[in-house]
């Protein structure tokens, strides 16, 4: 199994993960191990919203609001 093992300064991780305060500005050990062999493409299948009981929403539900409606909302 391939993996990555590296020791770096935790400051290099600042923009990638949120480190606990106790680990900031210290040398940390990074080990990256694969959890699966292949990438699974996310489903592009249309899904209904889970919290709405009733028929699926029509495609027109996602159309942009008319200008008059946007003005009523102050947008």
> What is the typical, i.e. mean, pLDDT?
82
**Main pleated sheet:** 2 strands, antiparallel
Estimated helix fraction = under 10%
Tell me the strand percentage band. Answer: 15-25%
Low-confidence stretches: none
How would you describe the shape? elongated
Structural class: mainly beta
Q: Give the ordered list of helices and strands.
A: EEH
- Give me the side-by-side strand order of the main sheet: 1-2
Name the assembly state.
single chain
Write a brief structural summary.
The chain is built from one helix and two strands, in the order ββα. By secondary structure, the protein is mostly beta strands.
Task: Tell me what you see in this structure.
The protein is mainly beta. The chain has a domain at 1-35. Helix content is 8%, strand content 16%. The protein contains one helix and two strands; from the N terminus they run E-E-H. It has one helix at 67-72, and strands at 4-9, 27-32. It has a two-stranded antiparallel ribbon with strand order 1-2. The termini are far apart. The model has no long low-confidence stretch (mean pLDDT 82).
Chart the SSEs and their pairings.
Elements: E1 4-9, E2 27-32, H1 67-72
Question: What key attributes describe this structure?
Answer:
single chain, 75 residues, mainly beta, two-stranded antiparallel sheet, 1 helix, 8% helix, elongated
